[in-house]
Design brief:
Shape: globular
Structural class: mainly alpha
Number of helices: 18
Strand content: under 5%
Order of helices and strands: HHHHHHHHHHHHHHHHHH
Length: 428
């Protein structure tokens, strides 16, 4: 069960690596990497954060035609409102307030970042529609279509990235954001075509929920889910703002997306464990073999990243594949040693979150994410106040600190609930 889910996350990690590698091969790579990785992508993710959990909600709630229509209208309204927020940020003076004042981004990346955000306008609505339809596909047992959609998305974005490299006349941030926007838009259209037979089947199905799904019930179910990724993604923008105020800001912002893409590729295989835990939690004696599997994924993923950090593979990766200049490659290689532990933590984070979600204790998940934000922010504030440490190193260390505190909180409450036999799953 784990492999298809992990493969989907891995493909998205590959897409991030291809984007960074492409921008590094175009004109003014330092400026455009900083604009893309330090401003455009974190802000685009932050705006779309409330619709990330649409996949879970759609899978759980689209049981009949009435529920599907309610969910569809809810998603279109939410996605439209967030798109309007994106337009407000990208096309009005709000951009200056957020990017120049709040984030404190270097002046050299202001205009590339503005252009990139404008091109990313279709991103949020495409993500909302895509994840809504994916939930319906998963509910109907057609999960291979999700993987096929991801492959199509990667093919579209990779083709546009390759075209940008061959032409060499289009700014890097334009190539990157254009490829991402087009890829996810085509994937959303593909998923729309795939779900049409399923929608027709829903139209003929009698009401399957008692009591029927209402807007109030939907909001009560969804908003707690929406809060978790919103807090998590807020840390990306906070991290960029903090790095902009530390030594070697432009270099750190340029390396930030390249390093993040590499570490995410190894962390991604652990993210998929959460769904495995939720699925198998009701089976007797599952804990021991599943924990053994988590240990295997945890140690092997960090071991592979350690192999890169400890050998010339790191220089080969950052200079040959990512096309960073030698001084930026040295900066990334040093920071990679701090990030080596991150892949080992992700599977356990997913494992404990899965335990709590299965038992209906999602409040602890939100609390853990809030502690992550607090812990990482405190270290970032220290880095700004001290002012003697390169921003990239502080940013990676802050991420590691936040995840460690989050993992401790998840473990603490998951462990305590495992000892209470009558604590059972609370269905949505």
């Amino acid at each position: 069960m784990w492999w298809p889910l992990a493969g989907s996350w891995l493909l998205m990690g590959v897409e991030l690596l291809l984007v960074s590698a492409t921008v590094s091969r175009l004109a003014d790579p330092e400026i455009h990497l900083a604009a893309y990785g330090g401003v455009v992508f974190p802000l685009a993710l932050l705006i779309e954060a409330p619709i990330i959990m649409v996949l879970v909600a759609s899978t759980a709630l689209c049981k009949d035609w009435a529920a599907y229509r309610l969910m569809r209208n809810f998603i279109l309204t939410l996605g439209g409102g967030l798109t309007l927020l994106h337009v407000l940020l990208a096309f009005t003076p709000v951009f200056g307030v957020v990017v120049e004042t709040l984030l404190g981004a270097p002046e050299s990346i202001w205009e590339p970042a503005r252009t990139g955000l404008q091109i990313m306008t279709p991103w949020t609505m495409s993500i909302a529609v895509r994840r809504f339809f994916q939930g319906l596909v998963i509910r109907n047992g057609r999960t291979r279509l999700v993987g096929l959609g991801t492959l199509i998305r990667l093919g579209v974005s990779a083709s546009l990235l390759l075209a940008g490299v061959l032409m060499q006349s289009i700014p890097g941030v334009v190539v990157a954001t254009g490829a991402l926007s087009a890829g996810v838009l085509i994937e959303a259209i593909f998923m729309f075509v795939c779900i049409r037979p399923m929608v027709r089947s829903l139209q003929q199905r009698e009401a399957a929920q008692e009591p029927p799904l209402t807007l109030r019930r939907l909001c009560s179910f969804y908003w707690p889910l929406a809060l978790t990724p919103l807090v998590m993604l807020a840390t990306l923008s906070i991290g960029s703002a903090a790095i902009s105020r530390m030594p070697r800001a432009l270099e750190s912002l340029a390396v930030w997306p390249v390093l993040g893409g590499l570490t995410f590729m190894f962390r991604s295989v652990g993210i998929a464990i959460q769904e495995v835990v939720v699925t198998f939690s009701d089976r007797p004696h599952y804990h021991q073999p599943l924990q053994q599997f988590v240990w295997l994924v945890s140690l092997s993923s960090s071991a592979m990243l350690l192999l890169i950090a400890a050998t010339p593979l790191s220089t080969m990766w950052f200079e040959s594949f990512a096309a960073l200049r030698p001084e930026l490659s040295a900066l990334a290689s040093t920071a990679l040693w701090i990030a080596v532990v991150l892949p080992a933590l992700s599977p356990w984070e997913s494992y404990f979150q899965g335990e709590l979600v299965y038992r209906g204790a999602t409040t602890y998940v939100t609390q853990a994410v809030s502690l992550y934000l607090l812990g990482s922010s405190l270290l970032l504030i220290f880095g700004i106040a001290y002012g003697q440490i390169t921003g990239l190193y502080v940013g990676v260390a802050a991420t590691l600190t936040g995840i460690s505190i989050q993992l401790w909180w998840l473990w603490k409450h998951s462990h305590s609930m495992q000892r209470v036999p009558n604590v059972s799953r609370t269905p949505p």
